[in-house]
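Q: Got a minute? One more chain.
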Amino acid sequence: MSIKAQRRIGLVLLAGGRGTRFGGGKLAAELAGMPVIAHVAAATAGLVLAQRVMVAAADVPDLPGFTRLALDPPGAPQSASLTLGIGALQGVDAALIALADMPLVPPDHFATLLAAFDGDRLASRCGDQTMPPALLGAHHFPALQALQGDRGAGALLRDAPFVPLAPEHALDVDRPEDLARAEAWLWQSTTKPL
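A: Always. Here it is, folded:
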């Protein structure tokens, strides 16, 4: 068995945002017949992961197989979500960090990230923007837990190796019009011409 196959990876799904630009409740909003957050869970369902935790706001639906962590106080910044999620991981070699409001990241992108991960850092990149989903080795956990304010792991990932992510897959559902765009893209991608 290869060293890669023996790595224990924990998934931290960040779902603690207030969704104010959406009008609240964006992760529970229906997208192609299921909640927005369920798309990320479905895309990661086939991955071999040691743990799955989600840091969630109160209005976020539960996900089977995930340990739910309540962000306290509600609406705390992204750094607090990361600290809570990373702190809940036990005995893992790395964390896969994903955002619950990025429902179009395909399963093969997550699988490619895990296959290419060398144990240190690996990000997704769309154009010139480095973003989640991303992997960080456990030796980066103290730095993640020291973050403050509304900042994620961007500083740690800025010069990290990356796997390209297509613009349509990088869509972040922040506003109702983003949800409409995601719905249209999913409909187009599953509709075959006659």
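A: Strands lie at 9-15, 30-31, 34-35, 51-56, 67-70, 94-99, 121-126, 129-137, 162-164.
Q: Perfect, thanks.
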